[in-house]
Write a structure and sequence with these properties.
The structure is a homodimer of 260-residue chains. Chain A has twelve helices and seven strands. Chain A is α/β, with parallel strands linked by helices and 260 residues long. Chain A folds into two domains: 178 residues, SPOUT methyltransferase, trefoil knot domain (Alpha/beta knot, 3-Layer(aba) Sandwich), CATH 3.40.1280; 64 residues, Helicase, Ruva Protein, domain 3 (Orthogonal Bundle). A seven-stranded parallel beta sheet of chain A has the order 3-2-1-6-4-7-5. The relative contact order of chain A is 0.12. At the A-B interface, α1, α8, α11 and α12 of A face α1, β5, α8, α11 and α12 of B. Chains A, B: It is an enzyme of class 2 (transferase). Chains A, B: It is found in: Cytoplasm.
């Protein structure tokens, strides 16, 4: 999917922005960069410096004399636009754009261009009107001018999110819910969860030790054990953490015994 | 909501990245920038040049000597992490983080820090272990190193999306989902969250007590304290639970003292 998305930069003034856009693209798995009438040398040292390893994209970037040529083979052209224009145009949010990508790319020949304008003046009305739709990145109304590479970063990130969402649902065994349930903390964990029986034994031990050190009075329990239960249960202890906590309690018991 | 989110940059080398991060923040409506031991002059001309109008954020950025001080008043500390570490830690995607913000900020005293590491080496293990959870921006596995300001841009963008989503539902018509989102654990909680500073004082006390009872050997720490940090940080302790745990430690200390 991502290989059928082209980023088109029109009239870029700062080579650093071209390099930074290339880096943002490659970070998110986009590889197709087109430059329309850049107002700088795209192979300037500053471009490579900001590309920081995405030099291949800078080197491979094709240059065009007009937007028309850069998007000729595209089936969907989307222009990044900060402003609403005189003539209203279909406008989507970055998220809606990304979520629509699988559908937009459903047919074999489908190809997309995301078009970004000049640092100072954006896209012209003529350029905006060459787009099927516009995408607007929601910004602070008091400070709305995004850096060019930052805008590329946001849209490339949203494209990748949409791509990953497809990937997650692509295998028969998997849906997002299952994946989530398998990884309660969002990463592969290093120890299995403690069992309920372990947990109950721990609470018995905890209450016994807290009573022995005179922190807890079973005849006047207030809500102490309930609060400690609530804390440790919502943490979803793993088996090693359980062993550590039992080990701490056992050591406290031993010290008390040493004393007596 | 956005005014209770602090961006913390640790050991930044390039003033341009500080300026670009400030611009990304202000574009998305974030204003609170903290710098921990920057390895450059944050008021360098390059910072202002890349800030491009977000100079006020650069000027207002507070500097700290350690992460600890920059997050002392925070109730949720989230570290941006590119890698999975030896010790798995609760990990969220930028979207899940953003969608959880209304919950995380439900109580009046709640404050969040999003922590970003050095351009070259990221966050240290010690810094990562001061975080309740980590956030990983999904990237191309073949080219995964995001520019610092680009990472700030992506997370700030997601925060703004979550903010705008609340705004859309913040009408009397709001549904059950909204009500749920107002509550950190799905219900109205009885105590405010513990602050980061409280938590760090607890960990100091915990380590001291575990050493005193000979359960922990600071000269051969293995991963004991890291595991206990991970456990108590992901439980998101409230202030009363914190008092109970400190009370237990104090009582153990007293019993040891009685003995000697």
């Amino acid at each position: 999917m991502l290989d059928r998305i082209r980023i088109v930069l029109i009239g870029t003034s700062h080579p650093g922005n071209i390099g930074a856009a290339a880096r943002a693209m490659r970070n998110m798995g986009l590889e197709d960069l087109a430059l329309v009438t850049p107002r700088c040398d795209p192979r300037d040292q500053e471009a490579y410096s900001r590309a920081s390893g995405a030099n291949t994209l800078v080197d491979a970037a094709r240059q065009f004399d007009a937007l028309e040529a850069a998007v000729a083979d595209r089936t969907l052209v989307v222009g990044a636009s900060a402003r609403s224009r005189h003539l209203p145009w279909p406008m989507v949010s970055p998220r809606a754009l990304a979520e629509g990508l699988p559908q937009a790319l459903a047919s074999d020949g489908a190809r997309i261009a995301l078009v970004f304008g000049r640092e100072d003046t954006g896209l012209t009305n003529a350029e905006l009107q060459r787009c099927h739709q516009h995408v607007h990145i929601p910004t602070n109304p008091d400070f709305s001018s995004l850096n060019l590479a930052a805008a590329v970063q946001v849209l490339a990130y949203e494209c990748r999110q949409a791509f990953l969402a497809i990937d997650e649902t692509a295998t028969p065994a998997a849906n997002a819910t299952t994946g989530e349930a398998d990884q309660p903390f969002g990463v592969e964990w290093d120890n299995p969860p403690a069992t309920h029986a372990d947990l109950e034994r721990f609470f018995v031990h905890l209450e016994s030790t807290l009573t022995a050190i005179d922190f807890h009075d079973p005849d006047n329990p207030r809500q102490l054990m309930a609060r400690l239960r609530r804390l440790f249960m919502r943490a979803h202890l793993d088996s090693m953490e359980m062993n550590i906590l039992r080990g701490i309690l056992g050591t406290i018991d031993k010290r008390l015994h040493d004393r007596s």
